Amino acid sequence: MRKWLVAIVFAVMCSVMVFIATRGPEKMRITLVKDAYVVIRNEEEGRFQVHLFINQRHPSIINLDYIIQSYLENNGNLIPIMLESIQCVQKCSILNATYYDFSYQFMIDFPQELALDNAWLVIVPSYQEELRLEIGSFSYYIAPTQSVDFFRVTHLKGVMNSEENKRLVAVLLEINGFFPFDILSIEALNHQVTVGNPIILTTSDQSNDEFLDLLVQHGYYPEGEASQMTVVDVLEDTMLLLPLYYTHDYLISTLAFRLICRDGGYQTTSLIDSFCFFTHHLQQVNVHDLVFYEYSV
Amino acid sequence: MNKILMCSLLFMIFLMGDIQIDNYSMTGHDEFSKLEFVDQHCQLMKDMDDLYVRMRIRALPVKFIGTSTSIEYQYKDATYIGNVIFSRSNKSRDVFIFDYSLQTVEFMSRCITIEGSLNMKAAGKIKKVEASGGITIEGSYEVERSEQQTEKSSMTIKVYPQKKMTLHVTGDAKISSGFTKKWFFWICIQKGAWEIVDVVTSYFELVEDDA
Predict the structure, then answer these.
(1) Residue A294 lies in a domain
(2) Which of A24, A114, A178, B29 has its CA 20 to 30 A from that of A7?
(3) What is the reported pTM?
(4) Residue in A78, A182, A67 with CA at minimum distance from that of residue A127
C-alpha cells in the first residue's frame, strides 16, 4: 500500500516538473492609452513621457542598457528621440490581469516643428524584436525666442462643456496691453485643437453656463469648424473668449497658445505658456479601446 | 487581581489615544473653503444635528467582534472651492519669474473627516467599510494625498511689479458619509460619524491682482 502511495506521489511530482520544464516563457504584453502628446521646446531640449502598461514587474525592456535606440515613426518618416529614464509608477489591474505602469521619459531635439496625426513609438532593444506602439498624435513646437512683451496675462480660465464627459470648449484669456497693438492670430499649441474667432467680452465675471450660452449665441458647436480669425485690437485691458475646435477625441487638459502681435510696422510672436485647465482624478478608459501588443521575452 | 486591573487600565488608555482639537474649518475639511451638495436636501456632516447623529449611531446593531456601519450618503455629487494653490506677490521693480508645476503641488484626491472616537484607513473605498475591513484604531484625523501625473502641467509664471498672481482650484466631487461602531466582545470600543470627499475633477484659474 505504502509503495503505491510513494509511486503516485513520485508520478505527480514528475508530471509537475515536466509541465514546468516544457512550459514556454510568459509572453510580455504591453498596452497604453493613446494621447495627444505636445512638446514645446524652449532654450533646452523638449521632453515628454509615455506611460506603458506591462504585465511584468521586471521585464528586460525597462533596462536602459539594453535599449539601443528609440524613435517616432509617422508615414515612414523617422524622428529620433532619446530615452532618458524609465520609472515604475504604479501597479494596476487591466481585464483582471496585473500590469505595471512604467513612465518612459524621452528627449527630443528636432530642428523643425512637427504635427504627427498618428505617431508610432519604436524602441529597439539589443536582444529581441523592436517594440512598435501606436501612441496617438504628436505635436512639436519651437518656442519663439525672447522678444519684447506686448502684454501680460491677467486672467486665464477654462470653460467646460455641460456633459458628463468633461471637455475644454473655450478658454477665457484676459490680457493687459502695455500699449495699443493688434493680435493677428492665436494658435493653440496642439495640432488637434484649433482656435475659433475670439469673442470680445465686456466682463469676465460670468459663470461657466453663461459662457456656454455666449458661445452658442456666437454659433459655436463643438463639431463645427473654426471660422477665420479677425484682427483683435488690444487696448489696456482686453477680455477674450477663445472657442476651441477638436479634430480628434483626445482629452486635452493642458494648452499653450502662440499669438502673432503687431504694433505699427513691428510684428512679433508671443507665447502663453502651457496651462493645466483641469484634471480628472477618476479618468475612465474603455479597455476595449486598448490595443495589447505581445512580445516573447 | 491587581495585574488584571492594571492591564485593563492600560488597555483602556491605549484605546483612548491622544486628545486633540482639529483646526476650525468652514466645511469640516481643511482642504476646501466651500463644499456643497448638488442635491440641496443633503447635508454635510458638520451641519447635521448632534441629536440626529447620536440617534443614528445608537441605532447601529450590536456585534460580537467587528464593526457595524450605516451609510448616510454614497457617492453624492458635490462641488467645491479648494484652498488657493499658490499666491505670489511682487513688491519689487522687476518682473519676477518662477516655474510652476503641479508636480510640486500635492493636492488631495480623497479627504476624510471623522467625528467621535473612530478613525478610518483612507486607502479603501466605502465598500471596504461596509465589509468591516477598513476601520483601524489610530489618531483622529487622516488625509490621503496623491501626487498627480504632471508632465503636462508645468508653466512659467511671470509676476509683474506691484502685482500678485494666484492659482485657484474649484471642481466636482463625490461625498460619502455614514456612522460606524466598533465592537469587541459585545462592548462598543469606538463609535463615530465619518465623511469622505472623493475629488473627481479640478478646474484651475489663474488671476492677477494688485499686490
Answers:
(1) no
(2) A24
(3) 0.79
(4) A67
